[in-house]
Design brief:
The protein is mainly alpha-helical. Helices cover 65% and strands 3% of the residues. It has 19 helices and six strands. Helix 9 packs antiparallel against helix 13, helix 12 runs parallel beside helix 13 and helix 15 runs antiparallel to helix 18. The longest helix is centred in the C-terminal third of the chain and has 34 residues. The model has no long low-confidence stretch (mean pLDDT 93).
Length: 567
């Protein structure tokens, strides 16, 4: 346990340090300040604008920004859908994989474009190298960049005053990809290769094991996809076992580095936020709130998993039950940390089986997703999701003190409140309504592996993962059916764009407002009290929304476990 606690401390310290420097760098990129990559990237940037016919000097209002964003995402869904249907006729397909069935292709296309990377298929037995590289990996970059630039647009809306424009979407997307995601992923891919992550275009190998049986080993360009999968909080694994597969995650060092990669950009964006709004303390407050929630949930998950089943512990066999579903190479500590990190961010990569966690251990990943994945959240989506809760919090404080709520000198009025409420409610309604439909239909319950409350947890987790754009699964739900492929795809779209569009609308509304000087009645959002109130708002909204459903799933399962009852 001491080693695990030391691991947690080192991990948190490192991603905060790396996030600080990366956040400073990202602020320079989006402020168009001089950076180390300018000599390489500036000519490439100009060439892209020339070929695409983009005027980089023309900025957009929030509606134009939204239209451009929706256009490229719609094109991405269409192209990726078609690519899966025709992959059998395309090159780099040594295994001869044929057409992906249409409903699965639609689900997968939506999944990767929305940064969800939910996979109702096994990658190594479904997709060709060409599809993986030109389809999935490309969307890993674009979906991650989309989340980041929405956060940047919202930051500009807060920082600017009495203007209509919040930036140029195409410029933001290009600079994010060229200056941030490509360099960091290229370097990380090389590091992963040095640890044993494979990167090749070889046909699958059929070898004879020591027992004399033949075994097929899947090959492929894994390291290049693994790097952006982690840094972009995408989560889609090249292999079905995801980061539990030794070709994706071969060593303890690769495991730790992949964990660092997941949170470094979400943490870094809080520092970017502070710099771009001209008040670093505001970024520290949001970072502190995220960190409080992260430590809280990590503590609950790890405690539950290290304890295991108390009925078996009393008989002196705690270790076998505590290790159920864990990555045996890394142990309970790194498995628990991975489960919390991947659902604190909208990553979805897994190195252990969430379905086999204890009831309270499995509750933590589910709750983190249901809260809107604002604990650190996905790249960009975590920050703009948390800013929705910031707006709710300052509004509540304004009601308490009898003043018009303000944030960074901007009055929070009816338009901002409506959009913030939409951003919080749309994913929540999607989770609960989708789960409700699934549990009362034959197609919904027929995919459940486990009966009773755990079966409900599988469904709840599935729709939470889709609407929260996480992509991880309890893995007890057989989701590759027409019902789940379509319903979860709809949930992904609502969960992604049902938050992005309100966030951009708020950006446009705030940018048009004038800045009001602070007065004696202005509530300070940089003190100790505000992050406590913000943390309470996040937890209270989550509890009021999801506690009844959770009570019927993991919570009742916990008490049944204590009573020694199973289904």
């Amino acid at each position: 346990m001491t080693q695990d606690l030391l691991l947690f401390l080192i991990y948190i310290s490192l991603f905060l340090i790396l996030g600080y420097f990366l956040g400073k760098y990202m602020a320079k990129v989006f402020n168009k300040e001089k950076t180390i990559f300018d000599p390489i990237m500036l000519p490439l940037e100009k060439m892209i604008y020339r070929l695409a016919g983009i005027n980089p000097e023309k900025e957009m209002n929030w509606k134009e920004y939204s239209k451009s964003l929706l256009l490229i995402n719609a094109m991405g869904i269409g192209l990726l859908f078609v690519l899966q249907l025709i992959q059998g006729f395309l090159p780099l397909n040594p295994q001869g994989f044929g057409m992906v069935k249409p409903d699965l292709a639609f689900n997968t296309a939506v999944s990767f474009v929305t940064n969800t990377n939910w996979q109702a298929y096994s990658g190594e037995s479904t997709l060709s190298y060409f599809t993986q590289m030109t389809g999935m990996t490309v969307q890993n970059f674009l979906s991650a960049a989309t989340g980041i630039v929405v956060a940047i647009a919202l930051i500009r809306g807060i920082a600017r005053h009495q203007v209509k424009d919040i930036g140029n979407f195409w410029v933001d997307l290009t600079r994010c990809t060229l200056w941030i995601l490509l360099p960091i992923s290229f370097v990380f891919a090389l590091v992963l290769v040095s640890q044993g992550v494979i990167q090749n275009l070889s046909p699958y190998l059929t070898l004879e094991n020591i027992e004399g049986f033949k075994q097929t080993l899947a090959m492929g360009p894994v390291a290049s996809q693994e790097a952006i999968k982690q840094f972009g909080t995408n989560g889609g694994g090249f292999f079905n076992a995801n980061s539990a597969h030794p070709f994706e995650n071969p060593t303890a060092l690769s495991n730790f580095l992949e964990l660092l990669a997941v949170l470094v950009i979400p943490a870094g964006l809080t520092f970017t936020f502070g710099r771009m709004v001209g008040n670093k303390k505001q970024g520290y407050v949001i970072l502190g709130t995220m960190l409080i929630l992260f430590v809280l949930f990590l503590g609950i998950c790890y405690t539950a998993e290290i304890a295991g089943n108390p009925l078996l512990t009393a008989q002196g066999i705690s270790q076998p039950t505590a290790m159920e579903g864990k990555e045996v190479r890394f142990g309970i500590g790194q498995s628990s940390l991975f489960a919390v990190v991947t659902t604190a961010a909208s990553c979805g990569a897994v190195n252990n089986m969430h379905d086999s966690l204890t009831p309270l251990g499995g509750l933590v990943p589910m709750v983190q997703i249901m809260l809107g994945e604002v604990v650190f959240g996905g790249v960009g989506s975590g920050l703009y999701g948390m800013l929705m809760f910031v707006i709710l919090t300052v509004f509540i404080i304004g009601l308490m003190v009898g003043r018009t709520p303000e944030y960074l000198g901007k009055k929070i009025e009816s338009p901002e409140m409506k959009m913030a409420i939409f951003a919080v409610l749309i994913p929540s309604i999607t989770i609960l309504l989708g789960s409700a439909i699934a549990v009362v239909t034959k197609d919904g319950v027929s995919s459940i592996l486990n009966p009773g409350p755990h079966g409900l947890s599988e469904i709840l987790y599935g729709f939470a993962s889709a609407a929260g754009n996480n992509g991880s699964a309890f893995a007890g739900l057989s989701a590759n059916t027409l019902f789940y492929n379509i319903s979860l795809a709809i949930a992904m779209l609502l969960g992604r764009f049902g938050v992005i569009i309100p966030a951009l609308a708020i950006a446009g509304s705030l940018a048009a407002k004038k800045t009001i000087p602070q007065g004696p009645g202005t509530f300070q959002t940089t003190g100790v009290i505000f992050p406590i109130l913000l943390t309470g708002t996040v937890l209270l909204v989550g509890a009021l929304t999801f506690f009844p459903a959770l009570s019927l799933g993991p919570i009742v399962e916990y008490f049944l476990m204590l009573a020694g009852r199973t289904f």
